[in-house]
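Narrative of activities, Objective 1.

The group set out to show that a structural description can be obtained from nothing but a protein's sequence at a throughput compatible with the screening campaign. Below is one input-output pair from the validation batch, recorded exactly as produced.
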Amino acid sequence: MPITELLARNAELYGQEICLKEINLDLQNSHNVIWKEYELIENNPAGEYRREMTWQVFDEKANRLANLLLKRGIKKGDKVAILLMNCLEWLPIYFGILKTGALAVPLNFRYTAEEIKYCLDLSDSCALIFGPEFIGRIEAVYDQIPKVKMLFYAGEGRPTFAESYDRLTANCSSVAPDIKLSDDDDAAIYFSSGTTGFPKAILHTHRSLMSACETEAKHHGQTREDNFLCIPPLYHTGAKMHWFGSLLSGSKAVILRGIKPDWILRTVSEEKITIVWLLVPWAQDILDAIESGEVKLEDYELSQWRLMHIGAQPVPPSLIQRWKKYFPHHDYDTNYGLSESSGPGCVHLGVENIHKVGAIGIPGYGWEVKIVDDKKNEVPQGEVGELAVKGPGVMKCYYKDPKATAEVLQDGWLYTGDMARMDEDGFIYLVDRKKDVIISGGENIYPVQVEDFLRAHEAIKDAAVIGLADARLGEIAAAIIEIKPGHTCTEEDINEFCKELPRYKRPRKIIFDKVPRNPTGKIEKPKLREKYGASALVEKQTTA
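Output recorded for this entry:
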């Protein structure tokens, strides 16, 4: 079944029920509301706002966009790009594109003008829908993207080089277009996170998107009574495809624009949120805010919050131990997935396996896994090798890149580039990215293991470990350490703490600095290698 049929079903069955809310609690910036067609259901002097949408309006808006695109000549197989911050319009635009038979092409909101140009060209996008935050970036390249024949602007203050999405769609039919779609039709192009270079274009079909719906619902058991809090960027497979569980169950979701601990807890409390998906830094911030007294849990109604799950990056066991101290009744799950495997959990821990915190888990619903050596032979249990996955959500290919496709897709298996091991109970532990392994004096050092160890230090907020060139050992491990606010830590303190590690795993350089992460929470190690690769100045002491 094409995923668009789920939306049509929900509109028919639950048409007048609220399905989405957008909430902005930014008291300084939210007064600049750029969308005027929805009545603000709350608007106080501080400037907070909330907007909401029913399933019927969601479907109608998707249909209006689809009919506009079809009228403008968009046809099955064309590509239409989306460049928006998280907002109430994001998902109707995505589904409107799919209803034409065209492919949705979500773009990272952090892309520079040059990266936007690169991705539009690589994906062969012929139309772009963008928001007000991107006027300057699009203006810088709009005359350099000849494949893009249509520019639609969503919001107030339309630039002269684009047409108004709001005005044009308002005059289009809200009846679904008669476009036949099948499970095998191409549906979307996503871009890899780019932490190892320029992003690749990842092609998914409708079957792949539907498999994400089923996997998410199977793992986390969404019902019509659930309310999902969506904070991560919707351009990424993770956030959107975890929301697919809400789509399948016909349940509510809230899009929160902001990640401050108080905003998250207030929204959970006021909107009766039951499921929250967090990135590691946001969970750390919530715990830090609790422990510093910045927030007090008794100020919020959190009893209905049943599940906290984390994905997109390795999760330090120490973080979950802290979390369970303050939220002992929460179910917890971690999900491992890639944009190439359509998001929400080709491997997942499972809420019943809290005793295995530290593992990424077991094969997800409908998935197979194996761990292999460089010759693609399975390694003995307990040994480290490359993780490979196989299932209904594997990408079709890297768009227009058969060489890169052949390197990672073989006989239906997706070779992830992640190094892992399997324990005696069949649980998989992520060790590191294949390209991030540090070889020091002939010994393999897996940075994730060292990073997890460092984050257990009471003064450390975040840590990243990279390899630096060394004339004697080939490479040495350098630890970039971000200190918690209000804490003091020295190089000597860290070295003393690391004596519990085997000698070869201990960082040879300690660098106190902020750990950069991309919007999906992954450490941006290329930036750190560029910054510290030539010479790393070690600060002897820092106070945050």
